[in-house]
Amino acid sequence: xxxITPSRLLIGWLILQVTFLGGWASxxxxxxxxxxxxxxxxxxxxxxxxxxxxYQNVAFEIExxxxxxxxxxxxxxxxxxxxxxxxxYHRTLWLELQPGTNRWxxxxxxxxxxxxxxxxxxxxxxxxxxxxxxxxxxxxxxxGLNVSLGLHKYxxxxxxEDIPRDNKHExxxxxxxxxxxxxxxxxxxxxxxxY
Length: 195
What we know:
The chain is α+β, with helices and mostly antiparallel strands. It folds into two domains: 34 residues; 159 residues, no CATH class. It contains three helices and 13 strands. It has a five-stranded antiparallel β-sheet with strand order 4-1-11-12-13, with no helix packed on it. Strands 5-9-8-6-7 form a five-stranded antiparallel β-sheet. Strands 2-3-10 form a three-stranded antiparallel β-sheet, with no helix packed on it. β12 and β13 form a beta hairpin.
């Protein structure tokens, strides 16, 4: 009779873990490779994150939702109605994307729940109000809503220069959107060339 020894039990447990982790990683890689890809326009932000290494901070234009899109999507357009409770600041929202007039996608509508029409939607978190300071009246003017894609760090290999942060260059992010609406930054494009 073969008794189960501690070494056989350990080997079985390790095989089970490797199988589980390998399957989990394969599933995510398959989703990423077969997900639709869109181009999103970036906006200039701070340079490198010096503490973590050569990571460039990246922000996207679609992370600022103007008031007219809020109004057409049935959202309130003033901050007093947008942020009633503390949970409103981290609420999950869905951005419905459409091809823009240029090479990148833009926001068509914003939804509280994922629409059932099968359109391309990205899951985001509501992060706050988008406001502009009016120096003459010394008040802030509500412009819309800030959301976060969660794609703010991009690693730059040592042989590359920093990503341009001025308006002279067109910097786009190539994003894959999984079936569950999770965006993943695949690469950046600067002036039509892969970075």
